[in-house]
Amino acid sequence: MSTPLGKALVIGASNLDIKGHTYSYHVAKTSNPGIVRTTAGGVARNIAENLARMDVPVTLLSVVGEDLYGKQILDITGDAGVDLSRVLVSKDQRTGIFLAILNHYGDLESAIADLDIIKMLTPEYLNRNVSLFEQAKFVVVDADIPTPSLIFCLEQCKKHQLPICVEPISVARAKQIIPFLDQITMVTPNREEAEVLVGFPLRSATDVKNAGLELVHRGIKWAIITLGPEGVLIAHEQDGEATTEFLPSISTVVTDTVGAGDALTSGAVCGLINGLNFRKAVERGVLCATLTLQTTMAVHPDLSLEKLKNFKG
Predict the structure, then answer these.
(1) pTM of the model
(2) What are the residues whose beta carbons fall under 8 Å from the beta carbon of 162, sequence distance 6 or more?
């Protein structure tokens, strides 16, 4: 088992996931028979837990309410090995909730993110924890955080020459990071989020390739565009030229797609921290995502580097 070279700092949302999974085809504007489950979620929290389970020392900067959901989230995340010593626990705001409707294929039909509490992740809060930037080797931020806080993170990463990965989260939140693409090391949009970032539709493989090239031309060092069952496109600069490559997905039985993108990001960041080249790091991310697709949890509870090494599909 490889040994991580440094510590990850992850910043963003921690919330309760409430997921309704229909037994059959989802029908809009009516009640659908199915099953409802709850689990610890939040993009930043998911990424932090994934990294901890892959033996990467990781600190989470996030916020939860002083309520039952917040306690549940902290217990699960802490048990996985994440350093929660700097997480805010608010008496004034309730823990964020992500409410999702999944169809019988386990794919997302619609969702509502009630994350007003994320406004508490202010530049002032981050500044109280600024020493963590000095200690980190890699920073991961989700785009749920307020724009001034994103700017603070970008400034600290530039100051300390740290790579920073920004997870766009959603179409709505992807718009926030457009002005800062030339300051971001790695970005991990899905197809719809990538369309927002580059400003044109991705209807074909050529469109996706051009989007990857555009992101590199705008200053991104490593771009990963996730395409669901079609796999991922990676784009980066090689020998002074922007280059792209499609990596296939791994065939698997899908239980639940929520958290798979976070797992892919986590695996790629873990690989880069461990010294893998970009392509190999993304391959690790694809393995993580495949495992996560097989569980109803936002993070596979048995994830480990050993499990990835022995993965059989």
Answers:
(1) 0.94
(2) 133, 136, 137, 138, 139, 156
